[in-house]
Amino acid sequence: MRSASISRRNVLPSLAPSVLPAPALAPAAPVAGPAAAAARVSLAAEVLAAANDGKRIEAGGDSAHAAGSDAERALTGAEEIPAGMTPVPTFAEEVTAASAFVARYREQFAKAIVGQTDLRESLLLGLLSGGNILLEGVPGVAKTRAVNAIAQMLDLKSGRVQFTRDLMPSDITGQEEKDQKTGEWGFRPGPVFVDMLLADEINRAKGQTQSGVLEAMQEKAVTVAGTRHKLLPLFFVVATQNPIEEDGVYPLPKAQYDRFMFKVDVPNPNAAELSRIVRLKLEEGEAPDVERVLTRDELLAARALVRKIKVSDEVSDYIGRLVAATHKGATTVPAVKNSVRQGASPRAAEWLARSAQALAFTQGRHYVEIEDVQKVAHRVLRHRVLLEFEAEGKTTTDELITLLLAGVPVTVKKK
């Protein structure tokens, strides 16, 4: 057998002249197009037949086994790749290689944060898909610590803004300022000019300041003094809000919630997790000690791959029916008809697909399964589906989404 490696890619097939049984079997001159393909297939079939009959083809000492291998390559469209050359990987192989960092990410996250698996995975899916995340939980459940740890792990330029009622939009976006030395006016970038922005307690700022951040999230740019300034390619917002505070807070308008891909409820740790947190704090202090697992450029490349993850027509159809079923007029789920005031927007369908792509990527798959959509559905829909006032004391949005997933069939029989 030859020492060169064999790759079964769809490249132009070739047969080495040394294995031909006689000149009569070889074409007299190169022929292009379908005729060439037919000639190669005919030649391969004859050589295979000779090999299968136990006949030896005496050409440079090669056996019928070698002749059969060459013929097989001709039939399958594979070509012998010279030693030292690297074959081009398939998309599935690219996804598998690019997603290898996910295991290291989870390992490093566990060094800094105890528990909070849903928080860990949601932040990763947001970074990979480019969707912004809203975290809701009481103080002290590691929201800020998790964001800082991820920025360190992924080599991101990060910033944090503590929202207060006197914060102005220009404090977030930046403003035109006069240089005291030169007397010239110039733009001073605000804290949004980072890869990852932590908008801490966003519901403590007034509506105009909230809108400044939400516009940057949507447009990936800010406009100051009539000039548009683009944000960094990875720009990603993690906003937090405290659900128990009532004084001095300005709840986000329901329409503004729609700009967040996920709403993640961050729970209190249990007793065992609290014990581990105490030991972690005593041993390491406030700063999470984590290692870098990915560079900014690698994360950008991974995000580009995520957008190419295959979403089949079957999955797209399921997403459409799932989102439509959140509306009273289109649903067949009784709980929705009785309890929902407002269903999800078209943006929900987009983020169901994009977050499912990111989830498939983290599992090393190059295609989306319906189970991926179901796994992200609560996080995508819980802040977009609004309950009737009468239903709020009887059920929760999460319970309703669970009933919705059970009531919407995965496939629909065609008539």
Let me know the average pLDDT.
78
Q: Looking across the biggest beta sheet, what order are the strands in?
A: 4-7-10-3-11
From the N-terminal CA to the C-terminal CA, the straight-line distance is 56 Å
DSSP strand (E) fraction?
5-15%
- Helix coverage percent: 40-55%
Label the overall shape: globular
Query: What is the subunit arrangement here?
Result: single chain
Structural class: alpha/beta
What is the H/E string? EHHEHHHEHEHEEEHEEEHEHHHHEHHEH
Radius of gyration, in angstroms, nearest whole number: 29 Å
* Biggest sheet features: 5 strands, parallel
Unreliable parts: 1-41, 54-67, 71-78
Please report the total strand number as a whole number. Answer: 13
Report on the architecture of this protein.
- Strand 8 and strand 9 (227-230) form a beta hairpin.
- This protein is 44% helix and 12% strand.
- Helix 1 (34-52) runs antiparallel to helix 2 (64-76), helix 12 (313-324) packs across helix 14 (346-362) and helix 14 packs across helix 15 (370-381).
- The relative contact order is 0.11.
- The strands form five sheets. It has a five-stranded parallel beta sheet.
- By secondary structure, the chain is an alpha/beta fold.
- It is globular.
- The model is unreliable at 1-41, 54-67 and 71-78 (pLDDT under 50).
